[in-house]
Design a protein that fits this description.
By secondary structure, the chain is mostly beta strands. It has two domains: 13-137, Thrombin, subunit H (Beta Barrel); 144-287, tm1086 (SG structure) fold (3-layer Sandwich). 9% of the residues lie in helices and 33% in strands. It contains four helices and 19 strands. It has helices at residues 76-85, 121-124, 208-214, 283-287, and strands at 6-7, 15-21, 31-32, 38-39, 69-72, 91-96, 99-109, 114-118, 133-137, 144-145, 151-152, 168-170, 173-178, 180-183, 201-202, 224-231, 237-250, 261-268, 273-277. The strands form five sheets. It has a six-stranded antiparallel beta barrel with strand order 2-5-8-7-6-9. Strands 11, 14, 15, 16, 17 and 18 form a six-stranded mixed sheet that branches. Strands 12-13-19 form a three-stranded mixed sheet, with no helix packed on it. The longest helix is centred in the first third of the chain and has 10 residues, at 76-85.
């Protein structure tokens, strides 16, 4: 029978950080696509009214588009701290008139160093690029007991207790519901770092054979995915038998080496993670936020 998870959640620090919506960025007029074309599309940053977790990660007229609200602290040093401390599932609060409204952190994006937050639709039109958002961070330093070498990062411990994402320890392995399995061979931009406690790395979707084999045509923002033969213990490494679990945090890209990004949540060098494929393994369903898949 599955065994409930024991963690050190009661010893984790709870630290608020403050961010603001990040204005859309545009550094190059045109970019080269993987097949030799050129394109000019909206990219990272902004308050995006019609893109939330649960929506498709593919098919948008955009490049690395980030769902709902892209945020950062205007001070680079403080933003570095916010990106490290902010964990997927953390509660974010914003003052709208006399009310305090709540959203959730859905991931971090390396390079631009953004923290993505999902707020209810009726909050978005009241946000400005000067609005202060407080994130109640908790999760870095999370340890799981009795699960071999499984390491956690960027993960609010509340997610481990949600019925909509039923993790369980069974026969020495951690059973984790995931929406998709990904082979490590298609992971691209973001490789080469020695720390996975912020940022993401990209799923290359340029091989039709692999896309068909793993059913990647309907990948969604917020999908929990398992990357097979990938170890994220001390950076992102190809390793036969390792398994890493993350969440899809931004949309696709046409540039070589790039694609939908994944922020790490769990990793095991020795393969003590057993992914269980479930269409319900999406943050929109788990958190009751965004656009819940039909």
């Amino acid at each position: 029978m599955p065994t409930a998870l024991a963690t050190n959640k009661d010893r984790l620090l709870r630290i608020p950080v403050e961010v603001k919506p990040s204005h859309p960025m545009h550094t190059r007029s045109v970019r080269a696509s993987h097949d030799g074309g050129v394109y000019a599309l909206p990219s990272v940053g902004g308050i995006t009214y019609n893109l939330r977790i649960g929506d498709p990660a593919l098919g948008w007229a955009g490049d690395h588009v980030e769902p709902c609200v892209s945020t950062r602290n205007p001070d680079d040093g403080r933003n570095s701290g916010a990106n490290f401390l902010a964990c997927v599932g953390n509660i974010a609060k914003v003052r709208i008139g006399d009310d305090t409204r709540r959203g959730f952190v859905t991931g971090t994006h390396g390079g631009c160093e953004h923290i993505m937050i999902d707020f209810p639709q009726d909050v978005l039109e009241d946000l400005t690029y000067d609005t202060t958002i407080r994130i109640e961070t908790v999760g870095q330093g999370l340890e799981l007991e009795g699960v071999g070498d499984v390491k956690a990062m960027n993960l609010d411990p509340r997610l481990l207790e949600m019925d909509a994402w039923p993790l369980a320890l069974e026969n020495g392995s951690l059973r984790v519901p995931v929406a998709k399995l990904l082979p490590a061979r298609i992971m691209g931009a973001g490789l080469g770092v020695d720390d996975c406690h912020s940022g993401d790395y990209d799923i290359q979707l340029f091989d039709p054979v692999t896309n068909e084999e793993f059913g990647l045509h309907d990948l969604r923002l917020g999908d929990i995915v398992a990357i097979i033969d990938a170890d994220h213990s001390y950076g992102r490494t190809f390793l036969t038998g390792a398994v890493s679990v993350g969440v899809v945090v931004h949309g696709a890209c046409r540039t070589s080496g790039h694609g939908p990004g994944v922020t790490t949540l769990l990793t095991s060098t020795a393969g003590h993670i057993e992914p269980i494929v479930s269409e319900a393994a999406n943050l929109a369903t788990i958190l009751g936020a965004g656009v819940e898949p039909a």
